[in-house]
């Protein structure tokens, strides 16, 4: 079947199926309601939900799929929040505690000196005894070591801790962090933005209202942020929709969110270890419903580290226009990463994943400025390996 014939068949399927009314809404650019969101999550017809989301994805981002050359740094795993969904923080019988010194941070960055990394993504636990100066030194160190890289750092809960240490209004703190090199904020820590889920599995962290307020403050001082949604634990379908609608309302106010990133819950090593892993089906649904409900978000990311590379590849036809990046090392859900025996994807592999799916690879920086390098958008022939002379 030709591409046009396929598109016609999909349109007919949507126009005559259970989502005919949502097809009309999407085509007319009308906003989906809470009830629409619940229907999308509850329908077993992943093909229809994905095809609808793909219409929005292609209207916004055409055939492009973005990726980034990035490196993650998790500067400490000491944390006083004790979230039940987390396996990252140091605890008896779990990971040993660490705090990176500035030399450690420099060394980590030096190890990837040969890679033209454009994004350094730094997040960590809430260490109760790090001083304010640590965070400023951290930014100074990264900027001095990789001056060309964009620093995307600190989730809202880290920002609230930093503000407490600084003893100043959040706006002032953000401006100071900016002056030390902070370029934007990641989307972590949103989890599910309802009081019930907050109280049940992350009661010591900021509330939904605080997360949203902190994100909006960052937007007001000119810092873009992303927004995540942790799904596949104790949340209900209705709570997922509430989460998406709160993000949509906040975005209406500030326009500061760049990308929505659904994060698949991995229970291994957490206090919720009896909860089974999410399925590829739910992972694709999360991408698609996110794309449909968040009509004011420019991008939706299929984060391959959490949903696996094969599902992230398929996600490009279910609403995702971004598959994140090379990553290098990932600690937050290290258990999954170890299972996959895969903590990094080469840039070549990302380009292959995009091309095989019939999409157009676009290397980006964290603000979606396009990067133009010889190998950014096409597969160059692999360079023959040169045997190194033995010493
Ligand atoms: O804040 C913690 C989540 C987040 C688990 O902004 C877990 O581009 C699954 O936010 N299973 C950190 N998830 C990761 C994050 C992120 C990742 C990629 C890109 C971006 C971006 C942001 O990971 C945490 C928390 O919400 N998390 N534990 C877990 N067991």
From TrEMBL:
What's the cofactor? [4Fe-4S] cluster
Residue ranges occupied by any Radical SAM core domain in the UniProt entry: 65-295
> What InterPro entries does this protein map onto?
Aldolase_TIM, CofH/MnqC-like_C, Elp3/MiaA/NifB-like_rSAM, F420, FO_synthase_su2, MqnE, rSAM, rSAM_sf
Q: Which Pfam families match?
A: CofH_C, Radical_SAM
Explain how, and how many, cofactor molecules are bound. Binds 1 [4Fe-4S] cluster. The cluster is coordinated with 3 cysteines and an exchangeable S-adenosyl-L-methionine.
Q: Which GO terms describe its molecular function?
A: 4 iron, 4 sulfur cluster binding; 7,8-didemethyl-8-hydroxy-5-deazariboflavin synthase activity; aminodeoxyfutalosine synthase activity; iron ion binding
Tagged with keyword Transferase: yes
Any one GO BP annotation for this protein = menaquinone biosynthetic process
List residues binding S-adenosyl-L-methionine. Answer: 85, 191
Could you say which residues bind [4Fe-4S] cluster here? 79, 83, 86
- EC class of this enzyme? transferase
Q: Specify the pathway.
A: Quinol/quinone metabolism; menaquinone biosynthesis
Q: What is its EC number?
A: 2.5.1.120
* Catalysed reaction equations from the record: 3-[(1-carboxyvinyl)-oxy]benzoate + S-adenosyl-L-methionine + H2O = 6-amino-6-deoxyfutalosine + hydrogencarbonate + L-methionine + H(+)
Q: Which UniProt keywords are listed?
A: 4Fe-4S, Iron, Iron-sulfur, Menaquinone biosynthesis, Metal-binding, S-adenosyl-L-methionine, Transferase
Please report which protein family the annotation says this sequence is part of: Belongs to the radical SAM superfamily. MqnE family.
Give a short account of what the protein does.
Radical SAM enzyme that catalyzes the addition of the adenosyl radical to the double bond of 3-[(1-carboxyvinyl)oxy]benzoate, leading to aminodeoxyfutalosine (AFL), a key intermediate in the formation of menaquinone (MK, vitamin K2) from chorismate.
Task: Enumerate the HAMAP family for this protein.
Answer: MqnE (MF_00993)
Which NCBIfam families would you find in this protein's record? CofH family radical SAM protein, mena_SCO4494
What protein name does the entry list? Aminodeoxyfutalosine synthase
Organism this protein belongs to? uncultured Armatimonadetes bacterium
Q: Which gene encodes it?
A: mqnE
């Amino acid at each position: 079947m030709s591409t046009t014939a396929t598109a016609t068949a999909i349109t007919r399927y949507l126009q005559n199926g259970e989502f005919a009314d949502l097809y009309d809404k999407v085509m007319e650019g009308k906003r989906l309601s809470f009830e629409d969101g619940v229907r999308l999550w509850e329908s077993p017809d992943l093909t229809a939900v994905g095809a609808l989301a793909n219409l929005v994805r292609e209207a916004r981002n055409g055939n492009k799929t973005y990726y980034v050359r990035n490196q993650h740094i998790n500067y400490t795993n000491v944390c006083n929040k004790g979230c039940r969904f987390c396996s990252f923080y140091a605890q008896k019988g779990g990971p040993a505690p660490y705090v990176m010194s500035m030399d450690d941070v420099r060394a980590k960055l030096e190890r990837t000196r040969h890679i033209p990394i454009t994004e350094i993504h730094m997040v960590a636990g809430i260490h109760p005894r790090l001083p304010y100066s640590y965070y400023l030194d951290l930014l100074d160190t990264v900027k001095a070591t990789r001056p060309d890289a964009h620093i995307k750092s600190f989730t809202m809960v880290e920002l609230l801790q930093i503000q407490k240490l600084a003893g100043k209004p959040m706006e002032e703190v953000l401006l100071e962090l900016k002056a030390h090199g902070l370029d934007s904020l990641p989307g972590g820590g949103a989890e599910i933005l309802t009081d019930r889920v907050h109280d049940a599995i992350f009661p010591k962290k900021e509330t939904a209202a605080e997360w949203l307020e902190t994100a909006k403050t960052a937007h007001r001082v000119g810092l873009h942020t992303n927004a995540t949604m942790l799904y596949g634990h104790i949340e209900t379908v209705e709570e997922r929709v509430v989460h998406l609608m709160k993000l949509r309302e906040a975005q209406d106010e500030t326009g500061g969110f760049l990308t929505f990133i659904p994060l698949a819950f991995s229970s291994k090593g957490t206090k919720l270890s009896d909860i089974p892993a999410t399925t590829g089906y739910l992972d694709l649904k999360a991408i698609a419903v996110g794309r449909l409900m968040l009509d004011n978000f420019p991008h939706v990311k299929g984060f391959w580290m959490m949903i696996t590379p094969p599902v992230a590849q398929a996600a490009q036809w279910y609403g995702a226009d971004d598959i994140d990046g090379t990553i290098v090392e990932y600690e937050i859900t290290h258990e999954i990463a170890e299972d996959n025996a895969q903590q990094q994807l080469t840039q070549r592999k990302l380009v292959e994943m995009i091309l095989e799916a019939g999409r157009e690879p676009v290397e980006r920086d964290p603000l979606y400025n396009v990067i133009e390098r010889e190998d950014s958008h096409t597969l160059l022939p692999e360079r023959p390996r040169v045997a190194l002379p033995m010493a």
